Amino acid sequence: MISVIILTLNAAPKLPDTLSALIPAAVEGHVREVVVADGGSSDATERIADSAGVEFLKTATGRGQQMAAGAARARFPWLLFLHADTVLKEGWIRETALFMRAI
């Protein structure tokens, strides 16, 4: 069970693709929550996160601050941090599941 934390700052153009790539993993039950940790966007990032039904968390600016705030909010034992322009490729669920079982 994975909590995905997406770090954003004015990420509206790329965020939909990042979120879309997570749908198969959510359907299969691997991704249990998505938190968008935003460092002060002035574009449509919050609206996109809200439309997607994911949690939007306003944080201090800076990746470290965003990561810490997202991790503190996460409810599941495995954390996957992504930048807003990361689009995971097909097969990532299988590879991640193998890794988590090996630990």
Fill in the keyword field for this structure.
4 strands; alpha/beta; globular; 103 residues; single chain; four-stranded parallel β-sheet
List the helices and strands and how they pair.
Elements: E1 2-8, H1 15-20, H2 23-27, E2 31-38, H3 45-52, E3 55-58, H4 63-73, E4 78-83, H5 92-102
Parallel strand pairs: 1-2, 1-4, 2-3
Task: Explain how this protein is built.
With 103 residues, this protein is of the alpha/beta class. It contains five helices and four strands, in the order E-H-H-E-H-E-H-E-H. The protein has a four-stranded parallel β-sheet, sandwiched between helices. The chain is globular. The model has no long low-confidence stretch (mean pLDDT 96).
In brief:
With 103 residues, the protein is of the alpha/beta class. It has five helices and four strands, in the order βααβαβαβα. A four-stranded parallel β-sheet has the order 3-2-1-4, sandwiched between helices.
Radius of gyration: 13 Å
**Within the largest sheet, what's the order of strands?**
3-2-1-4
Number of helices: 5
Helix/strand/pairing category? alpha/beta
SSE pattern? EHHEHEHEH
What is the percent of helical residues? 25-40%
Q: Which parts are unreliable, with pLDDT below 50 for 5 consecutive residues or more?
A: none
**Biggest β-sheet, characterized?**
4 strands, parallel
Strand fraction band? 15-25%
What's the count of strands?
A: 4
Distance between the termini: 14 Å
Globally, the shape reads: globular
Q: What's the average pLDDT?
A: 96
